[in-house]
Amino acid sequence: MLPACTLGACLAAGFGPAAAAAAAGLASLFAALCAGRLIERGLSAPVSKVSAAVKKFIADNYRLAAALPKEGWPAAAALVSSANRLMLELGAFRAFQINQVVEERGKAKALIETIPDGALLLDDRGGIIYSNRTALRLLGIPGLSEEVSIPASVTVTALAEEISRMLASEEPYLKACVELPRPEGISGPARTYLLIAAQFLLPTLKRPGRVLILRDVTQEMELEKTKESFFQMITHDMRAPLSSIMGYTQMLAKSVPKTPLSDQHIATIIRAAGRLNGMITDILNTTKMERGSMSLSPERLESAALASRMRDAHAPDAERRKVSLAPVTGDGAEFYGDKVLLERVLSNLIGNAIKFTPPGGSVELSCGRLDGNVLFMVSDTGPGVPKDKREVIFEKYAQMEEHSSMGFGLGLAMCKLAVELHKGRIWVEPGKGAGSCFKLTLPAGEKPA
To answer: Which of 237, 245, 373, 411 is most exposed, with the fewest beta carbons within 10 Å of its own?
Structure first.
């Protein structure tokens, strides 16, 4: 329908109905064009400018070169104002984020560069994502470039071979020690390095890589050798006088008049000498087993009888410490093992249980079977072993801080080596209610060849 005012004006002017209708249509079209132009200038153009400005803002890494001018209708001007404020705030937040990342990266780099260990991040092809200067120096790499890769660029042959083995492995965590050949004309100990390789996954790479740590452990290894030499010297030098003490004590036991006091004193000397002899034996056995020079002398044994003998041997010590040492319980089983070595294992476990159990506490021994193997258990009501120490206590010289003055920390290390030499397993669990329960299993098969 044509606008009535336009149509009436045309008729009044003498136009015919058709001409009047055409004129009215043109007037409507003109009005629509004018309205469209006004809408474009007042709303569409500002919106288009805002859209283009936002795209440019993102393309320029969230940097706003200049604020958009306010134009158009009030609603469009409000939109432009909001867009300006939003882009300014996003730009400020982006700059803050970048500064934070740069600062944190700087801290991490400063930390990595100051530690004495070499540290590298490698991709799955051996390319270096990051490396500190120490790592490049230890590996003999003069500097980083696109051509540098691991282990191809490593100039230290022994390290290159071990790193190559680690990178080829599917294991998530690997550790190895590498002793480098001593250069000709250079005195002092050969350098020894500990290598640790662990898998990681960076979301940005979308594929796994490796963290590689290189640590110079030469001093630690030399200290370890010094300890070994010291203990070897002590044990060998103590064997002769200890044998004399035990021999003359046995002679005294036969020659002095029998009185309760003399018997008690002689028994104390014999017991202390026996304990010292056991410690010396443990040190020597530990060294032999670590070197792989320890050979077993297996014989048929019965688990309950073996445990009972060792229980009876420790009964006086338990009585002196006011600790209840219960008779051996459980079903015994026959198996083959080195009697002397296993006696030392059980003696250490029982002795430790008595030593760490307070007066009034109790120690229990039991035998049985577990998964077809012979099982020994030594339980106590002492302080127990914290969860984070249950693996560590079987390492050499490892001791809990509260008991650091009670021995050298060799007994459990010897036990672990001896049990593993028998193809068995030893571990510790929490006791019933309190204390610890040490368990060991040994194969119950035929006599080994």
So the answer is: 237
Domain span(s) for CATH 3.30.565.10 in the chain: 298-442
* Fold of the domain spanning 115-181+190-216: Beta-Lactamase (3.30.450)
Task: Quickly count: other Cβ atoms within 10 Å of residue 168's Cβ.
Answer: 8
pLDDT digits over 296-333, tens only?
899 999 999 999 999 999 998 999 999 999 999 988 89
Number of H helices, E strands in the chain: 11, 13
State residue 18's pLDDT score.
Answer: 58
Q: How many CB atoms lie within 10 A of CB 369?
A: 15
CA triplet 248, 349, 445: central angle to 5 degrees? 105
**DSSP code at position 96:** H
Residue bearing tokens 């990681």 = 200
What letter represents residue 68's amino acid? L
Give φ, ψ of 50 to 5 degrees.
-65, -45
Q: Is 134 left (phi over 0), alpha (psi -120 to 50) or beta?
A: alpha
DSSP code, position 14: T
Instruction: Let me know: does 80 contact 71? Beta carbons within 8 Å.
Output: yes
Give the three-state DSSP class for 46: helix
Q: Which fold has domain 222-291?
A: Helix Hairpins (1.10.287)
Tens digit of each residue's pLDDT (9 = 90 or more) over 352-370: 999 999 999 999 999 999 9
The listed CATH number (3.40.50.1110, 3.30.465.10, 3.90.870.10, 3.30.565.10) that belongs to domain 298-442:
3.30.565.10
Ranges under pLDDT 70 in the chain = 1-43, 46, 72-73, 75-76, 105-111, 185-187, 203-205, 397-409, 446-449
Strands (E), 98-145: 118-122, 128-131
**Rounded Cα distance, 149 and 151, in Å:** 6
